[in-house]
Every structure is written in structure tokens, then in C-alpha cells.
Specification:
Elements: E1 7-18, E2 23-24, E3 27-28, E4 32-42, E5 47-53, H1 56-69, H2 79-85, H3 109-132, H4 136-139, E6 147-149, E7 152-155, H5 178-192, E8 197-200, H6 206-219, E9 225-228, H7 235-245, E10 249-253, H8 259-267, E11 273-275, H9 285-290, E12 296-299, H10 301-304, H11 307-319, E13 323-326, H12 333-345, E14 375-377, H13 390-402, H14 412-417
Parallel strand pairs: 7-8, 8-9, 9-10, 10-11, 11-12, 12-13
Antiparallel strand pairs: 1-4, 2-3, 4-5, 6-14
Helix pairs in contact: 1-3, 2-3, 5-6, 6-7, 7-8, 11-12
This protein binds 2,3-dihydroxy-5-OXO-hexanedioate and magnesium ion.
Pathway: Carbohydrate acid metabolism; D-glucarate degradation; 2,5-dioxopentanoate from D-glucarate: step 1/2
Protein name: glucarate dehydratase
Pfam family, one: MR_MLE_N
């Protein structure tokens, strides 16, 4: 007989995890970033885990949502989004414009709710899989591949966080020019076997970033390369970069902000455009696809609302002949496992997925997931196939408790001000 899947308790544990000083067009990563670990406890004694953003606005939604789950069954997945829909979102959190700090497109009430729901959906799927003795990918209809390919996510970075800012040491050194970027790429290939490379751009003037991608192309001839300035360029600058790097780019990611500008660029270049900024909700798909503004959508189960919705997104993309891959922010192993399970079920995943995981020296798992040949083997054990390390979780939660609130919201511009007090979030397009 299957264990009783009635939800009797939900544990929410906000944590702060170490993050290196990675640069993007908004600023730099804080030394610690907030994440939320969700545990769904069932009457039969089985617990499932999930993970999402840990900033206060997500926590404030997760708490009442968790209360509403008590007494429901972990298998009742279709009702989760409806349940979340009933929850009011503080209007000041949804200015209805580009989410500058988050680099993930518009901020809407629904997107906030979905970002919370996704962690609960993953936790429920984990519990269900454990109860049935089935991996999450089997609950999603079964894997179509045994391993999921990831790309090396390269960043311009400083050797350490600014003077006087407490943080963990990382051994990767600075990467502030083409040689530094190539060196970082070499280290990533040696350690993890990645064969495709994405450079987070929008940090330096475009000519410097063109030179870095050229240097990567010389160091790794024939390997797929991507450049993502998070909308920092004008249409004309984007077209110039596309002309200069067209022979080596797999795609350009969000060179400009917004669907109309992306459509303008797409109409004038052969280089495919990818996005995790202008197609981030179902409502944004119609305009982008009918205008042929994007050729690859980078899904993300966190803000799209879960693993099953990610499969729906992939199906819509397939119908329109648009490619799919996956976006990533700072995340831990629970999310990497979730990403790997869903990616394993998506037919026609032609581009290696993004993952920040190599940058995360800390995790809440008893055993880290390992990249081999740039791939993660799809776990076949029950549920997600990962185990929570309670001691680590407690430690990282203690860090969150001890924080005075300064680090509980990710704010890359504020983190940059520790090095440059004059820094303000740049107006777009920057170049
Ligand atoms: O556009 C993207 O790929 C991202 O938004 C990924 C991350 O937010 C990345 O840019 C970061 O964390 O600096
Ligand atoms: Mg991007």
C-alpha cells in the first residue's frame, strides 16, 4: 500500500549561501545570496524537498501558501497554482517593468506566486516519487536521455569581494580581460568537462567583450559560444556585435531589452537570439513568436512555476519551431536535480543548459551533484534522488538568522557600491 501522502507539515528554511564576486550589467553578486529550502512532510512519514528564491517577497508568500497546503495530498499538483492565485501580492513588489535586480524580465504578481509554487511542486513530486519508488522524471512521463548537458557559465569577476566586505574565499582568481576569461574557461573544462561556453556580458564596453569571445573561439575552436549582456545594448550595437561574432556564436542572449527591440535585431541578423528576459511568462509568448523575435527560449522552472509547466513551455516552443534550453541564477543542488529531471524529459533539447552550480561552494545536500563531460547523469533513484544535509542546512540558516537584513534581498547594485560608492543601476541601453 502507498504511504499516506496527506501533507501534515511544511518546513520553510531561508538560508544565505556563499557567492563569488561575479559581475553583471547591474553590478556584482553579494558575498551571500538568499535561497529558500522547502520541505513538505506527509502523514506517511515521507518528506519531499524543493528550493527557490529566498528574498523576503518570496518568503512572505511562501509562509501563507505553506499553511494552505496542510491537509492536502502531495499528489494534488494541478491545484497548486490555483491555490497560489488566491494569495494577495503586495503591489509595491510588482512595478510591472523589467525586474532590474533580478535580470529575469518583467515582475508580475503571478510570476512571484509561480516562483513560490515551483518549490512546492518540486517538493511534492519528490515526496510522491519517494512514496512510489519512482524518479521524478518518471512522474513527468519518463526521460528521453540519460544525461543532461550543461554549458560553462563564465563570468567576469574580481579575485575577491571588496575590501572590508566579509565573504568566503574562492580559488578561481580574477577574470577581467580576454586572457582571464579563457583561463576561467580552461579551469571549467578541466574540472567539469564542459564543451560549450556562455559569457555573462554587459559588464565592459562591447569591444572588450567581443575580444573575450574571440579569444574563447581561438582557445576552443568549433565549440558553441554564447554572449549574454542582459539587454545592455542598443539595436545598432547588437547588430554590430552579431556581425563581428556571427561566425562563432551559437546564439546571442538578450542583446536588447523587450520584444520589439529583439524583433528588430532578429530581422537584421542571421545569428539566433535567445532570451530569459522577454519571454518569461505565457502571456509574452504570442508577441515574441509571431514577431519572430527569439529563436531560443531559456526556460526556468522557478519563475515559470514548476517542472510540468516547463514541459508545457517546451511543447509550445516545439510547435512554433523555437528552440529551448534553461536559464539559471544562483541555485543549489536541489534545483539542479529538478532542472536535470525535467530537462531529461524534454525532446529536442538542442542547447546545453545554463547552471550557476559550479560557482556554489556550499550546498545543503549530503552529496553534491557532479558534472562529468559537462553532463549530469539523470538520477534514477526515488524522487529527486538527493538527500538533505540537516547540519549544513542549519548552518546556512544560522547565517541568515544572524544577518541584519542587509543580505536578505539580492541587490547587485548595492553590492557594487561597496567597491564604487557612486554606482547606480545603469540606464539601458548602456552601449
Ligand atoms: O540572463 C541570465 O542568464 C541571468 O539572469 C542569469 C543570472 O541572473 C546572472 O546574470 C547573474 O546571476 O548575474
Ligand atoms: Mg540571460
Amino acid at each position: 500500500m502507498t504511504a499516506d501522502l496527506t501533507i501534515t507539515d511544511v518546513r520553510l528554511t531561508p538560508i544565505l549561501v556563499a557567492d563569488p564576486p561575479l559581475l553583471n550589467t547591474q553590478g556584482v553578486h553579494q558575498p551571500y545570496t538568499p535561497r529558500l529550502i522547502v520541505e513538505v512532510v506527509t502523514a506517511g512519514g515521507i518528506t519531499g524537498v524543493g528550493e527557490t528564491y529566498g528574498d523576503t517577497r518570496y518568503l512572505e508568500l511562501a509562509r501563507p501558501f505553506a499553511d494552505r497546503l496542510i491537509g492536502r495530498r502531495a499528489s494534488e499538483l494541478n491545484g497548486l497554482a490555483l491555490l497560489a492565485h488566491e494569495m494577495a501580492v503586495d503591489g509595491s513588489q510588482v512595478p510591472g517593468r523589467v525586474d532590474a535586480g533580478g535580470l529575469r524580465g518583467v515582475r508580475t504578481a503571478d510570476k512571484l506566486r509561480l516562483s513560490v509554487v515551483s518549490a512546492f511542486e518540486v517538493a511534492c513530486l519528490d515526496a510522491l516519487g519517494r512514496a512510489l519508488g519512482l524518479p521524478v522524471h518518471a512522474l513527468l512521463g519518463g526521460k528521453v536521455r540519460d544525461a543532461v548537458e550543461y554549458s560553462a557559465y563564465l563570468f567576469y569577476k574580481w579575485a575577491g569581494h571588496p575590501e572590508g566586505v566579509p565573504g568566503e574565499k574562492d580559488d578561481s582568481g580574477a577574470a577581467l580581460d580576454p586572457a582571464g576569461v579563457v583561463e576561467q574557461a580552461r579551469r571549467f573544462t578541466e574540472r567539469y568537462g564542459f564543451t560549450s561556453f556562455k559569457l555573462k556580458g554587459g559588464v565592459f564596453p562591447p569591444d572588450e567583450e567581443i575580444a573575450a569571445v574571440r579569444a574563447l573561439a581561438e582557445a576552443f575552436p568549433g565549440h558553441p559560444l554564447r554572449l549574454d549582456p542582459n539587454g545592455a545594448w542598443s539595436v545598432e550595437t547588437s547588430l554590430r556585435v552579431a556581425r563581428e561574432l556571427g561566425d562563432v556564436l551559437e546564439y546571442l542572449e538578450d542583446p536588447v531589452l523587450g520584444t520589439p527591440a529583439m524583433a528588430e535585431v532578429a530581422a537584421r541578423t542571421e545569428v539566433p537570439l535567445a532570451t530569459n528576459m522577454c519571454v518569461t511568462t505565457f502571456a509574452e509568448i504570442k508577441e515574441a513568436f509571431t514577431k519572430d523575435a527569439v529563436q531560443v527560449v531559456l526556460g526556468d522552472h522557478h519563475y515559470w512555476g514548476g517542472l510540468r509547466i516547463t514541459q508545457q513551455l517546451a511543447a509550445i516552443c516545439r510547435a512554433f519551431g523555437v528552440g529551448v534550453s534553461m536559464h539559471s541564477n544562483t541555485h543549489l543542488g536541489i534545483s539542479l536535480a529538478a532542472m536535470t529531471h525535467v530537462a531529461a524529459t524534454v525532446p529536442g533539447l538542442h542547447h546545453a543548459c545554463d547552471s550557476h552550480y559550479p560557482w556554489q561552494s556550499e550546498d545543503v545536500l549530503t552529496e553534491r551533484l557532479a558534472f562529468e563531460g559537462g553532463r549530469i547523469t539523470v538520477p534514477d533513484g526515488p524522487g529527486l534522488g538527493v538527500e538533505l544535509d540537516r547540519d549544513r542546512l542549519r548552518l546556512l540558516h544560522r547565517r541568515w538568522l544572524d544577518d541584519d537584513g542587509a543580505l536578505r534581498e539580492r541587490d547587485d547594485a548595492a553590492a557594487m557600491r561597496a567597491a564604487d560608492p557612486e554606482w547606480i543601476t545603469p540606464r539601458m541601453p548602456r552601449w
